[in-house]
Design brief:
This protein is of the alpha+beta class. The chain has one domain: Nucleotidyltransferase, domain 5, CATH 3.30.420. The longest helix has 18 residues. The protein is globular and about 50 Å long. The relative contact order is 0.19.
């Protein structure tokens, strides 16, 4: 019998690959890749054509104490501001293997509040 953790990891990997196969980022419309750990949340804007990261944001930069959903929303607003500084108006939201719920949804709403359209 296979180990339960190996099965879970394989499912997560398949979900991530399936999601990313449907999207590609460019310099005008980058892919916003999300990584969520138990403590932190990270987002980066990626130009897949040149394989370059255009901008990043994480909750480690904010140095605030609040609920994780509120922090994710503030990280989204920070990312929206950084993309607006680079004259990027649209992006493709890559949630990876995560459900569009909770911190991931708050991050997306914060990015939209920063002026970026998906």
């Amino acid at each position: 019998m296979k180990d339960a953790n190996k099965i879970k990891s394989a499912k997560i990997l398949r979900r991530r690959i399936r999601t990313r196969a449907k999207m590609e980022g460019t310099s005008l419309k980058p892919r916003l890749s999300v990584f969520r750990s138990l403590l932190h949340i990270y987002v980066q804007a990626i130009d897949d054509v040149k394989s370059v990261t255009l901008a990043t944001a994480s909750d480690k930069e904010l140095k605030i104490k609040a609920k994780r959903i509120e922090i994710a929303a503030q990280v989204g607003e920070l990312m929206g501001k950084r993309l607006a500084e680079k004259n990027i108006k649209e992006a493709v939201f890559d949630k990876g293997a995560y459900k569009y719920h909770g911190r991931v949804q708050a991050l997306a709403d914060g990015i939209r509040k920063g002026g970026i359209k998906f």
